[in-house]
Amino acid sequence: MKPALFISDLHLCAERPAINGIFFEFLAREAPRAGALYILGDLFEYWSGDDDLDDPVHAAVADGLRQLTASGVPVGVVPGNRDFLLGAQFERVTGAKVLGDSALLDLFGTATLIMHGDTLCTDDVKYQSYRATVRKPWLQKLYFALPRSARQRIVGGIRNHSQQSTAAKRPEIMDVNAEAVAQALRSHGYPRLIHGHTHRPACHRHQVDGHACERWVLDAWYEGGDFLTVGPDGIERRRVAA
What we know:
The chain is of the alpha/beta class. The protein is 35% helix and 24% strand.
């Protein structure tokens, strides 16, 4: 049986051509042999709306995903904090399915919860407040009524502020909260968990209410392409070299 592949935090954009190239290599070499591909947030560095598909890098990525889904490999995308505005046009163009904040999969008989991971970082109170605000439907309606140029300026300003804010925060604040992890595992029946966002690749073992659970964290694509392959024999961390 073909394995499922998991990636996150690629932050693809024109300013990172080497990483873009690694992603296209991944699409050509690794992804076609998969049973499914799951992208767990922040595929793009920014996304001001689906009209960003006009951007040359975004268009090339969308075309690569379209070729993959057309070949019979399903693609699921969990929106991240950088690209949470992915919508219906992105789905139509790529053939991918935009999922919710989380999804529970059955992978070869093992229940597996997937998410971006930002909702687990509850110690970062300011970020969680911002996250709740920008996802309000009425605010998004006002936002999408603006011209694309205005939306891109807003996204650019938020992006710059986020970078400055992140640099000033203590590292532990930006990692997951243990109780938030336990609650996520508890509320979904104690599954295996795979997420990104923190850029701290590892496999963690959790004991929650007497249940042993694994938590796999994906790496960001800064120096190469990190991905997990999940098959009937378990999980393997692999890398597309730079």
